[in-house]
Amino acid sequence: MSSSQTSHSLAFRVMRLCRPTLHVDTPLLVDPSDLLVGEDIYDDPMAASHLPRLLGSLKFQPSGDAADLGYRNRFLLNDSTDSMGLSGLLLLPQAFGAIYLGETFCSYISINNSSNFEVRDITIKAEIQTEKQRILLLDTSKSAVESIRAGGRYDFIVEHDVKELGAHTLVCTAHYNDGDGERKYLPQFFKFNVANPLSVRTKIRVVKDTTFIEACIENHTKSNLYMDQVEFEPAQNWSAAKLKADEHSSDENSTARETFRPPVLIRSGGGIQNYLYQLKSSSQSSDQIKVEGNVLGKLQITWRTNLGEPGRLQTQQILGAVIVRKEIDLQVVRLPATISLGRSFSVHIDLLNLTERELGPFEVSLSPDDLPEERAIMINGLQKMVLPKVEAFGSIDFHLNLVAMKLGVQKITGIRIYEYKEGKTYNPLPDMEVFVDLE
Amino acid sequence: MEQDSVDSGAQIDPLSNPFASLDSLSPDLSSLNDLAMRGAWRSILEKVSRSRSLDLLKQPHHHLTYLSFNVLALSKLRRFADANSELESLQDLDGSDYRYETYPKVYPGRSGSMVPFSLRWIHCIIPIKLGRRNEGLDRLYKLLDLVREKLEERKSNSREESLREWKRRELLVINTIIGDHLIHKEFSVCLDLIRNLLSGDCLGLDAFLLSELGYIQLQIGDLDGAKGSFSQVEGIADKEKSIKLMNLVSRNKALIYLVGKDYVSAVREYEECMERDHTDAVAINNKAICLMYLRDLSDSIKVLENSLERVPTVTLNETLVVNLCSMYELAYVNHAEIKKTLSNWIARVAPDDFDSSCTRI
């Protein structure tokens, strides 16, 4: 807070107006039966028949003039729930507090005339200044405030959606005519810092045709965040569905269940919550073979805190892994139960054409990339096998004769398909582990 | 409801009835009670000390009752360490010293504990107030176990009045536990505990508890949840029309308006409350807050000042004074002077337990 050197009649006073809080404090309130008599006295039949009347009269005195009640409300419990200490009394914000990206900054600004003279023709401006820009929140220059009497005030409330991190300054300025007619300029600055409320880490996993996005939201604020909405807004060619764990339905009590839907609360100072989305490509054309533009979409996050104080953020575009759609797939239909060292064995394989055009003929061979002496399993007999054409979306099955050269757990690896017509090479079969036994 | 007991009470000679008046329970208990009603806690300390030194307390339970007032008074005056040592002088609250059957000549035919329950409760609260929260919370949960044991015993021998008292105490302890978790923003525990209360047979769907649930949901930010809870309160209030419940409903509505930033409607609800009951301190305080959010600082100050003038005994509380001082600080350049005036007035009228630090002078 600073003001210029000249003495001023006017001064700005500022209070951040976030939502008020509900006051909570354990009250020291008692019930007469817990103070005036022993706890087991009611087991005595005579006490049980007389005490309720005697002590009840203390509790529920006929409501007369409030003054007669004294400070009984600070002494006696009216209702057992009073002992929770949540009376419903609202408390004004007591400190500026932390302010986070995505929240709304709201402030009560009062300009006070502390001089003994009337101040006239006042134009007031309030702006938010960040590192990047200046945003005008209030400007009375078109219709100046005519006058503020001695000891008087002019109040206003400004609001600003916080969209930038870092240093912010609320700049309040006033031009006015002082009591002696001198035109004066009063600038006052109120600085605050905007922090990041949460971090979002995403992981992308591709399982066959489906892309899964896992988002981990971590709360960096000092309050618990009630997650209103955490939605994935998919890019054009995608559709998204939020996946949730099955709910535990152990609680059978119906009224309680209706009253409560357990809220998604992320604990203050580092609590996390994970979300999972299933993305499907909505484009049906399989001409698009290689890559969908790899933008998957973005997360829209809204939360609420005390008395519904809202916040909202969206992430940057989330990029997916480049998805190559397969043209050719190999699937192992059958492997022999036992594989013996040096003995030929046959693997039954399906070759699938996943395109909408005819492909082939094909040549099946082992990748020459690996050194032959390191190979544990090799093709037995002819090293190249030729397969005929396969129609669009068709398949063909074949038997590949292999022989194992090493004992133990080994990999069938490097099976390669060469397509003659388009001259492409595929390595569609994932490595397969087998156990090679003696005899 | 108590008709039978009232009738039977009328037939007993008042002189031989030890439950006819407060003073027949313990010496001069009515004046202790009056002092407490007036918030004269320092006078209570004096009176207890005088009664002890003049040896006015004859029976074992007199000592316990006076000690309870003393511990409560010390706690009220925020002298928690003193309250603690006073409590510790009792040693084991479950010891035979504090049981009626230990003194058959004084209490013929009576048995059980003569410890006032509030002593056990304050025994839990003191560590919390002294900053040893875990210890206090452990004690509260242990106390809850004890209360439930007592309840089970009384269920089996059908002592109705006693059963009712212990049920009330169970609620008291659970609500205190909820309050402590609430202070530490452990909302899930609070919600679980309230869920148990609402579904259990000891309270069921209670308008006040449902409202508290709504306030907690509002604190969390669960607006839909809060609306649901409040609408259940309305359902209960529709059946049982009383000013207390009608005001509760209006105040709940006002909070929903406030959350939606419709401060004008919130103010209207609070004004209805004040028309029905001009001593509704929550409505008065909250109306002033809403006026402030409506940019009407002058009127919000007036509302609070008027209420302090009109009904100080119900509205003079620390929260309201904190609010008023915040308003002064915003409204007046010379707020220190104005707060001093307020503070002097408070010193004249406030009860002894009023925490004057709330004026922030």
Automatic annotation (TrEMBL), chain A:
One of its GO terms (cellular component) is TRAPPIII protein complex. Pfam families: TRAPPC13_C, TRAPPC13_M, TRAPPC13_N. Residues 198-318 form the Trafficking protein particle complex subunit 13 middle domain. InterPro entries: TRAPPC13 (IPR010378), TRAPPC13_C (IPR055428), TRAPPC13_M (IPR055429), TRAPPC13_N (IPR055427). Residues 336-427 form the Trafficking protein particle complex subunit 13 C-terminal domain. Coiled coil: none annotated. Transmembrane segments: none annotated. It comes from the Eukaryota. Residues 8-194 form the Trafficking protein particle complex subunit 13 N-terminal domain. Belongs to the TRAPPC13 family. This is Trafficking protein particle complex subunit 13.
Automatic annotation (TrEMBL), chain B:
Gene3D superfamilies: Tetratricopeptide repeat domain. InterPro entries: TPR-like_helical_dom_sf, TPR_rpt. This is Trafficking protein particle complex subunit 12. The lineage of its organism: Eukaryota, Viridiplantae, Streptophyta, Embryophyta, Tracheophyta.
